[in-house]
Specification:
CATH architecture of the largest domain: 3-Layer(aba) Sandwich
Number of domains: 2
CATH topology of the largest domain: Rossmann fold
Bound molecules: adenosine-5'-triphosphate, magnesium ion
Largest sheet: 6 strands, mixed
Number of helices: 7
Number of strands: 10
Helix content: 25-40%
Shape: globular
Order of helices and strands: EEEHEEEHHHEHEHEEH
Strand content: 25-35%
Structural class: alpha/beta
Low-confidence stretches: none
Oligomer: single chain
CATH superfamily of the largest domain: P-loop containing nucleotide triphosphate hydrolases
Radius of gyration: 18 Å
Strand order of the largest sheet: 6-7-8-3-9-10
Distance between the termini: 31 Å
């Protein structure tokens, strides 16, 4: 743990009662995230990645341990944490601007400044020309861009992303990964990204946290010491990706 940690998880555990049984989703999670850091979370399906994000977002409560953001215990959802999901979750009857404005509903800023904030973030994700479009008029990639703008518009301390690009075709996914890396470099918002895509993790993250299943626990934390923007076919990239894949496969085989 570093003194400058933005997010600190200590001994976090979470279980669920399910179908008369008991599922230990997470056990003994110790993790810190520094201000402005980009951390990716990978691991087999069901190993507790989304549960971990939901705990940090304040959407679930841990059974044990503590989670603090900026030194304050997380007790529920707050504007300090933005969240982006696999599906864009835009309301179909509202325009892009109106959807993003919803995220500012707790803001005390006057309407003019809110509009300015929305425009800045639409510009950031390249959607300014679609400010008045409805979600049905956007492609999948554009809708996810709008979700990113909505997630950032409150200028959160931490942005949580749960497989944000997994429903997109590979070309759009690759492009959005590059855009997210540019947005992160520009905004300097700390990001915690859950992904199934090891290449996405290596492309984006400062550190990659590998979760092992049953119960979900941290098995490895890998620092990615490759210069940005990362080159997917460089030797360092390819070998790190291969070693992480071997790591993940060993748990699938063990299961
Ligand atoms: N609300 C819930 N009620 C009961 N069990 C749950 C609940 N949420 C999660 N679980 C269980 O906790 C475990 C971890 O689930 P979680 O969704 O966090 O996994 P994941 O790593 O995100 O999986 P995936 O990669 O498939 O999205 C699973 O066994 C799941 O069934
Ligand atoms: Mg999940």
């Amino acid at each position: 743990m570093t003194d400058s940690a933005l997010l600190t998880l200590q001994g976090v555990g979470k279980s669920f009662v399910h179908g008369g049984g008991h599922v230990q989703a997470l056990r003994g999670i110790d993790l810190t995230l520094d201000d402005g850091e980009f951390v990716a979370l990978i691991g087999a399906s069901g190993c507790g990645k989304s549960t971990l994000l939901r705990l940090v977002a304040g959407l679930e409560t841990a059974d044990s341990g503590s989670i603090a953001l900026d030194g304050a215990q997380i007790t529920g959802p707050s504007l300090s944490c933005g969240m982006i999901f696999q599906d864009h979750r835009l309301l179909p009857w509202l325009t892009v601007t109106q959807n993003i404005n919803l995220a500012l509903s707790q803001s005390k800023l006057p309407a003019v400044q809110r509009k300015r904030l929305i425009d800045i973030h639409l510009e950031l994700v390249g959607l300014l020309p679609f400010a008045n479009a409805f979600p049905r008029q956007l492609s999948g990639g554009m809708a996810q861009r709008a979700a990113i703008a909505r997630g950032l518009v409150n200028r959160p301390r931490l942005l949580l992303l749960d497989e944000p690009f997994s429903a997109l075709d590979s070309l759009t996914r690759t492009r959005l990964q590059s855009e997210l890396q540019a947005i992160w470099a520009y905004e300097k918002t700390a990001m915690l990204l859950v992904t199934h895509d090891v290449e996405e993790a290596v492309f984006l993250a400062d550190r990659i946290v590998v979760l092992a299943p049953h119960p979900g626990r941290i098995s490895n934390i890998v620092k990615v010491d490759l210069p940005r923007p990362r080159v997917r076919d460089s030797a360092g990239f390819v070998s790190l990706k291969a070693s992480l894949l071997r790591d993940l496969e060993s748990y699938v085989e063990a299961a």
